[in-house]
């Protein structure tokens, strides 16, 4: 197995081609290889770890749940149903994992040159020990090997968590979550550190489906009167406290834009009333989200949660697809973003307060050098999140460093997020990032812009320490 | 001659400098060198091939008609008249090709580091066999050699077409074109595949000079009543049918923005009436162009034409120059573009239909990774056109791949367009692109992000197969 | 000393890592090393040279006055007061240079990977001959060495000016400046060429604090009636004449945007009245700045001053910091820019006039390839300024060339600006730029996109001749 894995995954993969630079990069990469994984932002299901049940079908785990794969296959005419996506109207979808995997394998050439291929090759060979490349003609063989492996004890979630060296894993949990799985995990006495992240979009964004019934549910859960501005804020504070009690160190907010708004209590009450009891227009909904970011930052100053802002996606750009399959099918599209104006109300109020940490992520790379690095290189409360989504890729990570470091330095960044949807794929993503980091730093060393001792320290910062510090991963 | 050409044009030009990567790139380039040329988008005059007459003066062909050269020379104070550009008021312009060439040669240093120099050096040495570099002191010698060559039988258009290995050449033809040259070509029995492209901007864009008289002419040509919305659409359908009959496989649309609009028939009729019979404002003109893109996409579903959208140029930014010389003098300037919102009406209606192919080109590189790759990597009907205009260059093509491939893959791109204005320059442009492609792929191989077998397959896709498939170049 | 400097500053620093390319780059760099320095844009205080007094405390000179250092330190929680910044309310600030330097040294790791570190290492080792690296534990030693050096005769401003090989140095001077230091310099008979630059923002931008009293002062200085549009323009012309008499070759304008406006005299008079005697809103202030750019361009046609436009900074983005410390504390943030529309009124009027030189600088890199290179590659009056501010850095300069040269060529750029705030740092900035230039050109040579002879000529253009020519530095 190992010998084959080496031909699929070269030991120097993703390191710079120039031999002298590669030698430096290899040393830097090796120096980070054994560092534990801090995963402060992702979408693994905590239930898997709570109950330590075997993974379900590998094709469902690795294909059906991966929006990167779904979108690319769909763009070339592969029906989502054939990949196991279930239409909302109960129409037929492929139920057989083996057949889903065959369909994927038949089109795997589409992923040449993409990070999806890098991640999958790593997951198959290094995590699952598959000793065949993914090709149409090997589909059944690979599928059988994956199934066999996932049936073994050593491939249960907790065993993998340990094997991967995960030191800290944050899941993403809605404001209405009972955090049941986290409670089970805690009660189990298992020492793995798995914590929730407070993601209140469902009760903060008036344009989310079910917003008003979510507020009702929030009131029931917290015994607060969420029909008033004050009661609503109390309910959110109450929920944050529950998350903090369950170990949370951060909140996360996925907003269409980075708009923030600092309104007077009277203005806030009026806007809340329009949003909750009236028929808010798009501008009012946007303003309400902006108002809430400032409110949430104020709460962070009290309870210490790091505030993550993921802005700039046009969710469900394809209405026909959303109607048929629901969200998260690969049809979210980035759009042009502004941060310099949008964040100003929040920064005017809290930007100089070093006790607060706001981590900003972008889908608009033009803001790296123009807006985000200058802002993060000045405001004590602001940190720059790692490349996100389409940019969590070799070229994307390189562009990030080249555009950001000269202006913001390394210390105003927060290391890596894997944003993984499956525990199985976490090591692959960290490995790609650590390799690209090593290559970038090696270029600085090879050009005598940094000495290797400094580069090694920064490689460790990027691989582990910055994330651990920013997200308070060390208890 | 050959030995000199090698000193002007190094055999490894444009390949990566790192020796290991260069060796891979050289192999990949060599593997594509003999592939035929598919040229699905350009501006060659079909009359030249129809009548197979010798090229006119080489300075007029290579300098006066090249807006890249005109603009750069003008920016440094060289009068356009001295380059043969004819003022509209009949004022004097240099009539002598030799003198035009001398003026160009005197300033040829301006083009160091630009693609114009790469293209011209290739055309002169490889196509015309000139055995002297372009310098002020060699101007007459080079001019004499070019003239001598173009007088030979072997340098007539059809002979060059064959020598260049052109498999498919699409010209660009207005909606009012009689396609006379294409008819002559067809009747001649010459086997070269030269087809028109339907470019109806003159009858679709209300802001084009002569728009209303163009509609009148369109009515006369098609015997349709172009004063009504229905008759106007019928006339366009009729013209498309003529283009299809003449071999067309695509339409092309040069719009100020990518705006699309899906209006009801009543709304469309009202807008048409305002645009054709009233005095439309800029917003109405813009909306009408957007409406027409959706209508044209609907027609494409019927007749199979690939819809190309070239958006984002501010045409004739320099009004004094436009008044003096007319359009296409190098004074068109790109502007900021939006696709995510602009294309949504069209995509909402047809984006999920894999029978349609919409190819989008941009002049705003910021949209590559933020908008176009995500869109093309999701919608079955959307493909991403190659780097266009200022970006059809070594650095431009590299940036395109680095920003696009990780998100859209290769399969959602459509290979190369030369956009050439002279048949003489076609091989140069494909050669530059194939070399840069090889270098990009070689970097992926050298970094073990792709194996060389896959890279060779993709090199052939990029050089030939993707364009042939997307533009239905194989009859 | 020299041997140590070599370990801090490798002789091949900033040159490409690939050995063949590095050899070319080294030759190109060496060919420019001895060229004199033309510094057409910066913020050195002319009083230092006028009176040739020793530099004050090195920590104040190199840290307290450097907004790059202040901002980064502040972003990581270091109080500006501890770096010597004086609160406006008279509150305490660290008065001791040694202590300021210790604070800086304690945090110097923040600057790894930034141009600040490159500049400082060069200044310390090459200019001041310090033979220890900057580290927390060497703080006192380095501080003592710097102080000792600055006390020597050979480190007085004029001696350094000569040693640095400065051929031309332009300072930046407000419209109300008496140019006293320049007069002293001139009278002294010292042959160094130090000239003022006319920077009239204080009397052109209605949103500047003190705008109206500045106009009063302007009237007093010029004996013109600055309460009328005509008198105001006369006063500005008068001041320009004084600057020209003092050797100025350029004006400089720092505007929030690049908007220009060409109004009729009546419209201009009305706008002037609203701006000076009424309460202009933000749009009117913006329009007035745009109006003035066109007026100033018209004046440039008369008096020959090169017009520099620095656009796109949101000044004093952090109001709490501005209130406490005033401007220039590192809290100016770039914002999205437009040039294609904004410059059109100015270009419509003067863009075709090669006697005018307008140099445009941007903080929005997305405009390089989309807007500025296309504009500069067409309009005879337009030139593209070098990378500015956050982009005057190794990665920033590389991106500039890669995005600009293919479209605008080299001849439409104007070489390097150091934008230095201290004479001590001028050589460092030119050295970094010359090295990066050499590396970029070496890549073109190594890829056979340019021959080395041409590259050497362009290296000299970029290092010296383009700036000398554009800014009329040769008397």
Which helices and strands appear, and what pairs or packs with what?
Three copies of one chain form a homotrimer.
Chain A: H1 2-8, H2 19-33, E1 37-39, H3 46-51, H4 58-64, H5 67-75, H6 97-106, H7 115-127, H8 139-150, H9 157-163, E2 166-170, E3 173-174, H10 180-188, E4 194-195, E5 198-199, H11 201-204, H12 211-222, H13 229-245, E6 250-255, H14 265-277, H15 282-303, E7 306-311, E8 313-314, H16 319-325, E9 333-334, H17 344-350, E10 358-361, H18 366-376, E11 382-384, H19 394-408, H20 426-446, H21 452-470
Parallel strand pairs in A: 1-2, 2-4, 3-5, 6-7, 7-10, 10-11
Antiparallel strand pairs in A: 8-9
A few lines on this structure:
With 475 residues, chain A is of the alpha/beta class. The first copy, chain A, has helices spanning 2-8, 19-33, 46-51, 58-64, 67-75, 97-106, 115-127, 139-150, 157-163, 180-188, 201-204, 211-222, 229-245, 265-277, 282-303, 319-325, 344-350, 366-376, 394-408, 426-446, 452-470, and strands at 37-39, 166-170, 173-174, 194-195, 198-199, 250-255, 306-311, 313-314, 333-334, 358-361, 382-384.
What is the number of E strands of chain A?
Answer: 11
Approximate helicity band of chain A: 40-55%
The oligomeric state is homotrimer
Measured between the Cα atoms of the first and last residue of chain A, the distance is 38 Å
Mean pLDDT of chain A: 96
Q: Could you list the spans of chain A in which at least 5 consecutive residues all have pLDDT below 50?
A: none
Could you tell me the strand content of chain A as a percent range? 5-15%
């Amino acid at each position: 197995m190992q010998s084959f894995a080496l031909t699929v995954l070269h030991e120097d993969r993703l390191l710079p081609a120039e031999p002298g630079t590669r030698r430096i990069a290899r040393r830097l990469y090796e120096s980070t290889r054994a560092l534990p994984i801090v995963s402060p932002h992702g979408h693994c299901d905590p239930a898997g770890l709570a109950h330590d049940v075997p993974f379900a079908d590998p094709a469902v785990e690795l294909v059906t749940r991966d929006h990167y794969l779904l979108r690319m296959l769909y763009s070339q005419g592969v029906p989502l149903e054939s990949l196991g996506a279930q239409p909302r109207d109960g129409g037929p979808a492929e139920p057989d994992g083996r057949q889903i995997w065959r369909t994927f394998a038949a089109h795997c050439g589409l992923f040449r040159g993409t990070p999806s291929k890098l991640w999958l090759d790593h997951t198959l060979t290094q995590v699952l020990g598959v000793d065949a490349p993914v090709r149409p003609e090997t589909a059944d063989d690979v599928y059988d090997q994956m199934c066999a492996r996932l049936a073994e004890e050593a491939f249960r979630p907790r065993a993998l968590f340990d094997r991967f060296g995960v030191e800290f894993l944050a899941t993403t949990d809605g404001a209405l979550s009972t955090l049941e799985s986290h409670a089970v995990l805690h009660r189990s006495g298992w020492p793995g550190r798995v914590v929730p992240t407070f993601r209140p979009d469902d009760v903060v964004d008036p344009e989310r489906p079910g917003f008003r019934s979510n507020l009702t549910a929030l009131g029931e859960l917290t015994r607060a009167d969420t029909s008033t501005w004050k009661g609503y804020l109390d309910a959110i504070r109450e929920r944050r406290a529950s998350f903090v009690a369950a170990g949370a160190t951060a909140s996360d907010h996925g907003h269409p834009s980075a708009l923030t708004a600092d309104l007077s209590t009277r203005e806030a009450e009026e806007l809340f009333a329009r949003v909750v009891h009236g028929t808010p227009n798009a501008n009012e909904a946007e303003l309400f989200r902006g108002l809430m970011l400032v409110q949430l930052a104020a709460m962070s100053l009290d309870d210490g949660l790091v505030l993550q802002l993921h802005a700039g996606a046009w969710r469900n750009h394809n209405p026909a697809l959303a109607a048929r399959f629901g969200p998260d099918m690969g049809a979210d599209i980035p759009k042009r973003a502004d941060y310099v104006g949008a964040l100003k109300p929040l920064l005017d109020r809290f930007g100089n307060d070093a006790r607060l940490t706001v981590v900003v992520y972008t889908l608009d790379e033009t803001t790296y050098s123009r807006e985000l690095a200058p802002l993060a290189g000045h405001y004590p409360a602001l940190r720059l999140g790692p490349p996100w989504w389409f940019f969590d890729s070799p070229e994307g990570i390189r562009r990030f460093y080249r555009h950001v470091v000269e202006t913001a330095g390394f210390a105003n960044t927060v290391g890596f997020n894997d944003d993984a949807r499956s525990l199985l794929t976490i090591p692959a993503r960290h490995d790609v990032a650590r390799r690209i980091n090593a290559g970038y730093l090696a270029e600085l060393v090879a050009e005598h812009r940094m000495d290797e001792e400094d580069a090694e320290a920064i490689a460790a910062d990027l691989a582990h320490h910055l994330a651990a510090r920013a997200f308070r991963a060390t208890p």
